[in-house]
Amino acid sequence: MRPRLPSPGFCYVVLTAAAFPWFFDYLDRPMFFEHPWESRPRDVGEARYLLGLGQDSADPRRIGWLRRAHELALRRSEFELAEAARAALAAAGVAGEALGVRELSPGVAWALGLDAEGWTTGTQLATFVLHNPTAEPRRAILHFSTGGSEDARCVTADRTEWFKLTGDGAKKLGTVRAPTVSPGARVAISVGAGAAFASGEKQLGLRFERIELVP
Amino acid sequence: MLRILARFWRIPLRYAILVALPLQMLVVWAALRGYDAYARLRDYESGFFSAAPPPFHVEQWRYFARDQYRKDLCALLAPAMPADDGLETFSLSVTHDSLASLNADLPKSGSAADHPALLEAGDDKMLVMARYMGENHWHWLFPQKSWRIKTKAGNPFRDRRAFNLRNAPSRLVIDETLITRLSREIGVLSPEVEPVKFLLNGTYGGLYLRWDLADETLVRRAGRMPGSIYQGESGPPDAEGVSSLFRSARYWQKAASRNAEQAANQADIAAFIAAIDGDPVEFRAFVDRHFDMRAFAGYIAIDRLFGGRHHDYNRNHRIYFDPYKGRFEPIQWNFGDWHHAYTQRSFDATEQPLSTALKRHPDVELLLQQRLFELTRLLPPAELERRLDELVAAIAPALLADVQRDACNWTAMDELELHAVPSVHVGQEEFLTELQNRKAGFRQLHAGASRDLENSRCDYVFTAGPVGQLDLASIGHVAQDWSGLSVRGQGDFALFQDTNLDGRLDDQDRMVAQARLAGEPVRIGLRERLYPGLRKVPTVNDRVLLHGRFDLAPTPLHYRYFLRCDGRVDEVAGFELKNAVTGSPVTARAVASLPPSVEPWSVHPWRIPPRPPVATVTFGPGVVEILETRRFEREIEVRFAPGTTVRLGPGVSLLCFGKLVAAGTAAAPIAFEPLEPGKPWGALVLHGQGTAGSRLSHCSWRDGSIAQHDLMTRTGMVSIIDSHDIVLEHSHVGANHVGDDGMHWGYVTDGEIRDCRFEGARMDALDLDICERVRILRCEFAHSGNDGADLMVSKVEIADCRFTRNGDKGVSVGEGSRLRLARSRFSGCVTGIEIKDSSVAVVDATSSIDGCQTGINLYRKNLGYSHGGTLQAESLDITNSVKAAVSHDPLSTVPANLQQLLGRGGNP
Fold first, then answer.
1. Do B66 and A4 touch (CB under 8 A)?
2. Do residues B479 and B580 share a domain?
3. Same domain, B191 and B300
4. Distance, CA of B551 to CA of B871 (rounded, Å)
């Protein structure tokens, strides 16, 4: 005997019954800010939210929202999201240098969050985007210095690690090894000081010294 | 069963829609409730710091929909309100019309008018007036409203004229309760903030906080004299965006005053603000004179230990000025959230003008640190956790049953870019997580504060020479007590402080030690204290209006000592140093150069004028004329020799802040009288604990008046305020002018007045306010214009005294006083003894009242009290009363067998 297909009504009831718990499960999911601080779900969720607020909006605060979305998306290597934020910023008249992205090595490395002298601000993170235009996997080593605390952290797509800068005198040095970048791919890595130190009126963190590309 | 399933398998669409409809309606219902809650906040027009609501995003709706869903789930599963959990229940019954009126056009309608209501709490049941309270929207925008309850005149609620029933804004609910209880425990004025169950029109409205107002009743309950209470809640931003609250007294509201006449007088707060904002050295003197530093230190210690940030540049300040002591005290108010991490640079989680002005003086900062240290010992983490657990256990059943419980979620506001903070449901799990977070946070705070309190170091550089130099740097957070030094050399040696900080040894430098050196190391005893300093560090604060633009961080302070020796000094070593707070040993470290003192903002302690040396000033014997008011600071003991006649010019006063000894004799008494007949002199004032131990014997005072000094007015010709161990004997207090009292004692403990005569006072012969363990023995009170003795909030014993023909009462026992009366006589007074306002008089069988219009009168005079007077007696001898032997109002208590006690004579 051939089994009969269920009626549309049955499908309707089943779909409703399935949607019902899904809806309340969806409602009950944590908000992005309820994930641990500096975790990937939090940063990505915040980036998506801020992009949603700022995109196609005339709110005077949108520039700040979109910048933050751009920064968070880059930090977590969410390049499509970052591109959407960048496009929204461009539509709002913020592009090029105004975006705050510096090209460190043409076509290879960019940085967001450094001042004119290459310093990060206080304990805030600066994000470095690395692109591998070659046919071989490559890595980058980022060199930093500081006149303050020896502790610093680096954030990649899905984790945060602490490292130390070392030195006997007032200046300490340290390096961060970025993840391997596959051919044609991009990777982001964010670095920031564990504690700020004051220099005049400014609150400084780490000074980016140079980038070293290794095979 | 199979048939049912088969039919269901083939269910027609139209029936399927009906079957699915309830589920769909629930979904739509949840979605709409979420949107409604979102819209309620979105449409609230006045956001935080005037921000606008953000554009709509589905996550905003989801946040509110989730909140409503969780609330509904809680409502389904919550138990009924517990009846026997030990928490008090406050039931408010308000008509529906009143509720509709309150909710008609929030927020204005909520606080525009008071509405009649019936309040029931414990044994109390009374008609009150009620309205919503709170400017912040979380008090009235959400279902749980906060209420202001005002009692009717003459019918206070437990000695309170008004109080709040507040919906607790924090997740933990009882954090303010813990802080206010701790505040009272360590002597900081604080309202009671206690958890209660709240019923509105018979329906459980949730766990609320009964929250006292910072008003006159609060200071009365704390045993203080009613005085000025100021609220500092908002000031305009200055050019840098920081609140100007502490720049001008006009931004402070006067919530209470000494009396109606003083309601508009803001001289006290103006002086307070001017001192904070003015020269630091003058501020230091102001603190000595007008700050109750123990109270301020306790208040600041709580802020420090709990990482409080609510007492900031702009808000949550309550200051009380005691008109008798002339001292300001803080009132614990709206402490708010505790911090969770110790990030303080110099103990305080936020700077604000009052605390930074105090911290600028290293010796005052040391006092604050010492109080903080005491608090860390009183409240280690285990004890805090025990108190929290106790409170949580007390509220747990009521909290579980509170389906409306909510709390402000500041994180949501910040992260969702909302213009106002939402108040959202707090589930049991979240509550317990918050509890654990607070405990963990406090452990961090306690550890951080304790660590910084141990941060005390000292470096030194010794330079030998004809005049050797010893430079020290006090480093870290805490001062060092320097008690000894080992010196090796030859000759007569002296150690000098570079007191004037000019880098060379000169006449203004103070010698602190001297010794004879003979080759072997000699230990030199010292009593020096080395304080570190503080410097300003620019800081980026997200709320500049509240938290300003700088932090204070430690920086070393340098101290130079000169070693003068007519021989030579070979070596200095063996520094005996201790942490001035914890007593831990501190090792002095020899260095090539001292760490720099970077832009110290602190006042170097050697710049503060030293206290004057202890000295004695003696007047007499003979006639002494005093033509202008004389002031004797705490270090000066004033003596009047037997046989001295002190003649004081018009309005001239003697202000003594140190001990006074006026020991006349029967043959050579001491008299205080006016220089010019008919022109009263001012007052003899003894003020402050420095006067403790004063003795006045065989003295007489007449024709004095009042004195005004240091923001205070003395209404007694002889005023003794804020002292202890005072004896007055064999003396005569005569007529006074202008002011009320012949003699006035305020805040005096352990005193005795014996064998004295009080006669002809303009109003009250002897006025005792907030005095304890004072005995009045074998004295006479006659012909005063008002009362012979007037007691307010005092505990006094009167024995073998006579009260004759006083214009009103022989003894007035008022406002929570306790009198023990023995072997005393009253005659010809309007009222022999009057007992009022929760006072108690115990009258013995051998005291008698004769020929007074009323023998004993008891009633409730001050409408702020719930009860009248109480008389305790085993026998009463009251005769020839014109009106009544004993009269009392219904709020007073007399012995049940009063008629029997009255015995012969008088009228009941």
1. no
2. yes
3. yes
4. 59
Whether B416 sits inside 8 A of A57 (CB atoms) is no
The domain total for chain B is: 4
- Asked whether the beta carbons of residue A26 and residue B62 sit closer than 8 angstroms, the reply is yes
Confirm whether B772 is domain-assigned.
Answer: no
Q: Which of these, B876, B862, B877, lies nearest to B816 by C-alpha position?
A: B862
Residue B257 has a pLDDT of 94
Co-location of B528 and B414 in the same domain: no
Residue B28 lies in a domain: no
Q: What is the CATH number of domain A100-215?
A: 2.60.120
B34 found inside a domain: no
pLDDT digits (tens, 9 = 90+) for B755-808: 999 999 999 999 999 999 999 999 999 999 999 999 999 999 999 999 999 999
Q: Which of B743, B777, B802 is the last residue of a domain?
A: B743
User: Which residues of chain B are within 8 Å of residue A195 when distances are taken between CB atoms?
Assistant: none
Per-residue model confidence (pLDDT) at position B48? 61
Strand (E) or helix (H) holding A42:
helix A40-54
Q: Which residue of B has its CA nearest to A47?
A: B415
B142 & B241 share domain: yes
Do residues B154 and B133 both lie within one domain? Answer: yes
Contacts of B23 in chain A (CB under 8 A): 16-17, 20
CB-based contacts of B125: which residues, under 8 Å, 6+ apart? B118, B119
Residues of A in contact with B54 (CB under 8 A): 53, 59, 61
Q: Which domain holds residue B703?
A: 611-743
Shared-domain flag, residues B176 and B247: yes
Q: Which helix (H) or strand (E) holds B29?
A: helix B13-42
CB contacts, 8 Å: A12 with chain B: 13, 16-17, 20
Tell me the ipTM for this assembly.
Answer: 0.89
Give SS3 for B614: coil
At B366, phi and psi to the nearest 5? Answer: -65, -40
**Residue the block writes with tokens 């959400």:** B142
Report how far residue A167's alpha carbon sits from residue A147's, in angstroms, rounded to the nearest whole number: 10
Query: How far does the CA of residue A136 sit from the closest CA of chain B (Å)?
Result: 41
Same domain, B231 and B173: yes
| Tokens found for residue B719 | 């005023």
pLDDT tens digits along B394-413: 999 999 999 999 999 989 99
Contact assessment for residue B687 and residue B326, using Cβ atoms and an 8 Å cutoff: yes
Given an 8 Å threshold on Cβ–Cβ distance, is B16 in contact with A8?
yes
Average pLDDT per run of 10 along chain B, which is 908 residues long? 83 89 93 94 74 92 95 92 94 96 91 95 95 90 92 90 92 95 98 97 95 94 94 95 95 93 92 95 94 97 96 97 97 90 90 96 97 98 98 96 92 92 91 95 96 98 93 98 96 96 94 94 96 91 89 96 94 95 97 94 92 93 97 97 98 98 97 96 97 98 96 96 98 97 98 98 97 98 97 97 97 97 96 97 95 96 91 93 94 92 58
Tokens representing B2?
A: 């199979």
- Is B410 inside a domain boundary? yes
Pairing between strand B162-166 and B511-518? unpaired
Write the DSSP symbol of residue B96: H
- Domain coordinates in residue numbering, chain A: 1-99, 100-215
The owner of tokens 């699915």 is B20
A52 touches chain B (CB under 8 A): yes
List the 89-128 stretch of A: residues with Cβ below 8 A of B.
Answer: 122
Contact assignment for A28 to B63 by CB distance below 8 Å: no
A170 touches chain B (CB under 8 A): no
Chain B contact for A32 (CB, 8 A cutoff): yes
Chain B: give the shortest CA distance to residue A34, in Å. 9
B55 contact residues in A (CB cutoff 8 A):
53, 57, 59
Please tell me which of the candidates B9, B26, B63 has its beta carbon nearest to residue A10: B9
Residues B619 and B592 in one domain: no
